[in-house]
Amino acid sequence: MWVISGAHFRHLPHTDNVKETDTFMRENTRLSVAHLVRDPVLLFLVLLVVTGLILFILLPLYKIVAYSVTTDEGRLSIRAAWDILRSKSYLQPLKNSMLLGLTTGILATIIGYVFAYALTRVDMPLKGFFKAIATIPIISPPFILSLSMIFLFGRNGLITNKLLGLEDSNVYGMHSLVVVQTISFFPIAYLTLTGTLAKLNPAVEDAALNLGASRARIFRTVTLPLSVPGILSSLLLVFIQSLEDFSNPAVISGSFSTLAVEAYRTITGMYDMRGGSLMALLLLVPTLIAFVLQKYWLSGKSFVTVTGKPTTSRQQSRDPKLVWPLFAFCMLVALTIVLFYGTVLVGAFVKIWGINFSFTWAHFKYVMTLGWTPLRNSVVLALASTPIAGLLGMIIAFLVVRKEFPGKKAMEFVSMLTFAVPGTVVGIGYILAFNGKPFMWTGSAFLLIMAFTFRNMPVGIESGTSTLLQIDRSIEEASTILGATGAVTFRRISLPMLKQAFFSGLVYSFVRAMTAVSAVIFLISPRWNLATISIFSLFESSKYSDAAAYIVVMIAIIIVAIGGLNLLVGLLGNSGTIASGGNGERA
Amino acid sequence: MSERDFSTRSSNVSLVHLTKKFRSLDGSGEVTAVDDVTLEIKAGELVTILGPSGCGKTTTLRMIAGFEYPTSGSILIGGKDVAMIPPNKRGLSMVFQSYALFPHLTIYENVAYGLRVQKLPAAEIRERTERALELMQLTPMAKRYPSQVSGGQQQRIALARAIVIEPSVLLFDEPLSNLDAKLREYMRDELRKLQKRLGITSLYVTHDQSEAMAISDRVVIMKDGRIQQVGTPREIYAFPHSKFVADFMGKANFIRVNVLGREGESARIDLEGTQFTVPRAGKAGPAVGQALLVVRPEALRLTNPSSNQPSVALRGRIDRFTYFGNIARYEVSTDNAPLLIESYNPEASSVFEEGAEVGIIIDFESARLLPAAEQGNS
Predict the structure, then answer these.
(1) Most buried of A448, B126, B349, B365 (most Cβ within 10 A)?
(2) What is the pLDDT of residues A198-225, one digit of tens each?
(3) What is A1-15+37-68+361-577's CATH topology?
(4) CB atoms A582 and B146 under 8 Å
(5) Domain coordinates of chain A in residue numbers?
(6) How large is the ipTM?
(7) Average pLDDT for residues B264-279, to the nearest whole number?
(8) Is A246 exposed, middle or buried (0-12, 13-18, 19+ CB in 10 A)?
(9) What is the pLDDT of residues B158-175, one digit of tens each?
(10) Could you tell me if B147 lies within 8 Å of chain A, comparing CB atoms?
(11) Closest Cα of chain B to A399: distance in Å?
């Protein structure tokens, strides 16, 4: 099914063919510089990547920090920043965002854990359906769940008004936001925790069972403690996502202000650039901390027991007292998702939701006429950035895993950083960095493509890295010694073996580019307006059914594009069934 | 068959004071993986580097391949210094321990890969690939993928892929270590036959001494990055220069003796108060004084303890007896040193039980002398 399967949440172990201690000792830095000079292609690639990372990741971040701590006269001062920060209008969004992030993190992790446990440990029907359902929120356009929320629970909501007869239900506020974000982000928790639970050595649980422990006792004393790193990881990842989220709070938070949205409103509504960038900084700090904790602290603490062998088949529980409650739970989650998505689908075809439910094509006509240009822009820019992001992701993964050069660790860190930097921060940073000489790029298609490229490559890098770590390095060496240059080896050997990773990188880049809101909302121009921003405008003017039609068309485009990408990558050639170079009779 | 058609461009290889230092794993100091190695490999010769894990043999091979850069010293292939030549321009081939077959290419495409990279005419690529496949008996499975054939066949694909480009030197990095014992012996012989027929200069790295003996023209024994001894398998087994070499190449007993004097190749020794003559003592041991007598397990014989033959050199007690059918193995404790004794065709002579007191007869014809004290006992 979905190859995205959370590649960027997992940290696959090093399963290289370890042979002699002397073969994997590090080269001296002195030697690796010599190496770099000797290999012009490598040197060129490293310089290209480094330039890109500095220009499109580090420079905007630096600009935000620098701008926040200078006065209008250009003097360095943190006094102004401090004064602003102490005011309530900054502290409240910070508090709200943290509260929302924690609440959503905990709820999504609980649902994700139960879901993951049910799908890995229990023998129950419809598993394929549940797995498919859980990936839908990851690839769907923004605003869709908020829109359903309004359709179902708003003033004219199907449930609140039509079913319960309430006249004054208030759908706007933190409660709706928690629901919407929990549904949006529980798949991340589910994927992270599936990784953890599936990789726990079943022998450990079998041993406990063998010692006479009951299932409940095994869960309490073995499974749960061993999955603690996964649980924390999931909490942090959902926390980051919740903090970064712009589209849901922008349309459904009411008076509950969050940092991402306040930063946008401060800049576009009050033309207060400094206030906005300070807000962005407030948003950046907690997400960065969470990211570093997740990536460097937790990944070292994992209890996942890795043997390099496929995990032996696990005895799945068939105890009806366990199976049916879990099944009911999964079904409830799945039906909720179906309800939310189905609502939008229906909403796209009715005249006025809540008042006139008669069928109409009018909203689609709107999308195809007035809404056509932004939609075409979105597709064009997403298509332009997807191959760049995909290829760059593979190249960075290749450089980081296979090559030795000074600054490698820094390159790896910076290139993964975009995963933690909220879109709002990127957008504001880009305005500050590229709104004057020497980089006059604001409002151009080029800058939008670069924003998409550098924001969307982490999944490609992560899945590429974990794939490469599992491919015996000597396969590439074999190509080299047979006479192939580094470029030929990359194109004919590494890239085809990276096909799966490449594909998930491409799909993820395309979907994220199509669905991006928070970063691009600062970067669009009248010439380059985008579909997601048009949907946002429709929300602002309460044209919900037009928004619904827009979203349905976007879903259709995404599905078609993924199918097309799949076909295209298939043309790259057979990727073989084993990646280890053939150890059929390894002792 | 057409193996003659693989023209041989075999070159000689010279390693001159080759040294490789790595930063140690904790980053604090340096580790010398290869230490001042000088070695000449003649064109068409198969030389094996034999040594324990971490002795530097793989690093040496990878420096010749170009995957590692020497810290100092030089590598000459066909008389030409290759220091500045990248691995893909050195005209070598390598058979990897893991075979490193391209999993996404068919067996045919795996073999043809090196030729395609050289951009040869299509007809030539086809002809040479088919010839290599035929030579390695792979023609029937040419369209399959590496994962669909057996380990022995994968090994042959790796070999076909390496020889089809007619390399000047063929490098082997423990190529048989992934095969089961029976197949390993078979492939070992096939590989040697092929190498002789094609006459490709080959450097072979292994830690398996029987493999080294079976295939090599010459064997290089390495330890801690340094060459210990170079010679034909027979020279090394029969005349080890050091205790390490004697121990690593086969099994050996070391008996403390006193050298009384030398006369040409032979030496007079005193062993526990009795004098014996070692007819070919070798050059490694001292001319006079304390020394070690190296005796292979098969050069020792057990006899009745009450035997008063003058040839009984030592007396001892059997601690352990293992019966293999073709061999009976005894571990015997004596006042001088613990001894390992192997008796071939045990049913033809008397078999001794554990705990028995025995006399030990030494076949001095194959015994050699080594210095008594040696650094780096292993």
Answers:
(1) A448
(2) 877 777 777 877 787 777 888 888 888 8
(3) MetI-like fold (1.10.3720)
(4) yes
(5) 1-15+37-68+361-577, 85-358
(6) 0.82
(7) 91
(8) buried
(9) 999 999 999 999 999 998
(10) yes
(11) 16
